[in-house]
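REQUEST
  id: r-88c1
  op: predict_structure
  target: DNA-directed DNA polymerase
  payload:
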Amino acid sequence: MGSKAKFFCFRCLKTFADDDSRLQHQLNCGVGKFAGKTELPPDGEVLAFRNHYALMKFPFTIYADLECFPQKVNRAGLHDNNNNSNIGEYKSSTTMYQVHEPHSYGVLVIDYQQKAIHKKIFFVKINLISMQQLIVGYVSSRLKAGRTVHSLCNLQLKYKNRAIPILTHNFAKYDSHFIVQGIDREIDVQVVPSNSEHYISVIFDNKLKFLDSFQFLPSSLSALIEEIPPDNFKIIPQIFEQDVIPFVSGKGVFPYDYVSSFENFLEDKLPPQADFYNTLNEEELSDEDYEFAGKMWDAFEINNLGEYSDLYLLTDIAILAEIFENFRELCITNHRLDPVHYYTLPGFTWDAFLRMNKTPIELLTDEEKYEFLEGAIRGGIAQVSKRFAEANNPMIPDTYKPEKPTSYLMYLDFVNLYGWGGLMKMPHKNFKWLDEVELAAFSKDLATIDPKGDKWYAVEVDHSINTHNDLPLAVDRRCITYDMLSDFQKKLLSNFPEIKLSKIEKLVPSILPKRNYICLLENLKFHLQHGLILKKIHRVLKADQAAILQEYIQFNSIRRGFALTKFEISFWKALNNQLYGKTIQNVRGQLDVRIATTRVTFTLLAPMATEGREQSNRPTKPAAVAAFPVAAFVAEPSPSSPLALNSAPVGEYDVVFPVVPSSMSLELVPYPHLSQGPSSHITSPYHHDTIDHVHSS
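RESPONSE
  id: r-88c1
  status: 200
  body:
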């Protein structure tokens, strides 16, 4: 009752101290991304490093992979096995090309000393319960302290949860589909979504946590392993003998389109080179790669194609473990944080910065200020180039004219742009609007204000331009309408009637007048120096600024200069680049996704999903529920099938029921050329006797 707020938004009931603020708010309230209530931190909230548990290296890490039979589909997008018709690769946005049926998966357990303590390959469809039972014996661990620690530190230096990390490469877009469909009983499932279809992490009963290594190392395994010198290998030599390491230190080849059933695994020789053709990518296998596959077959004394599949799977897992353990070692050695406590590289590098940072960073607690700064984030123009230029280059004899002046065309690239930007001063506290008196003084002294001083300014202005050349300033996002096109463009468009103008806003460099354009003071002064005419200053947001990222950026840059391998160079560069993206992360696009594994849970979540879809627009949207597969119909599920809702309608309905794969038999066979070490188990459906290899350490 004692609040000074007397003005209300009648749509969202947010209160304001003055009517101008309310009117400014109502320009956006209920429109697009601003449609709904936004929750912000409480006053006085400061951004600081709090994830102290990440300073502890997780005692066990599991690396996994799975292999599938690719099945062709008919024109209706179906094939004979209805249980798997919902998983596939898409050649385009409208055509299902293949359906993938899992036939095997493997796990490799690495302890905190980078020792391979367990490896096993299964020929069985995803069975989450058997995997949980397999590794439960490795959960327990004890930590000893050399000296007494503070009670607060002792409480902070403990694992946030005991979920064992399981890493697969490209989990979000591939493996996660099969894992979620493999749930066959009531179990607590938590997901960290990239969107309603792709999950970058799935956590089961707070015991198993699937992570996507691609979120940390966004490149192919074959490219990543080439950046690590064989002398730096720590995992691969524990699994394979020294004489065969050259065959397993790179990504192998496999005839995916040829192997479509377990019967193919009985074949006792390598298929012809033509059968390695990848129809999806329309790629043939090179003579060199086929010859290498033949040498690999002989070196490992492989008896049939099933054993070759085993080796291919085991090699992929070993390579993944090798790559990620090298990555973990770099992270822990230099930033003391174990990346398996995080979900993505941006999240890791952000926390690494916070741990090093000594400058207090205040969080925005005013929605109007938050939306104001959102309006200044528009994206970036990738290049600036002239439409036409002609060179008189003596190194091009066909066009060179000696009687004319020599000239060249140069393409200039700005290197380390993110690192350079991170060295600049940035706002970090005391965000406040300029009042009328301060705004008048700001307008008067605009030419003399130093944007690189201790104060930071963001301005909202109107401006126009009389003439300009090849570098239109003050780019903005807008839809291009037909009347904006030139006569030439309209004529060109008439020749292609199938091309329609996009209704999606794009970042456009133009010389059109700008209204309510938000930018930094430094940018505004640059614009004015190059011909823009300032019409009006609407608002100015002021804050204290400091080079808060400088120490972290320089720390990484210096170490990049001393890096000895391509892998290390890429690592240090990525930390700085990914930090930039984290600073402007669009939290409005995040989803809170829930998975229901029983009808009871489904019934409880359904109203929440509806409420979240109709009312919510927090920086994190609540109770949006999603699962696989995406289907435009409601089906009666079996009692064990996961049930789901999707926050966005799928076709006409919201309800989606995935199909649970059936289980398959499990058998074991020995594996040749495994190095003497920990227990090794290889399983296969094409060998009838069971042999368990156990080697003493």
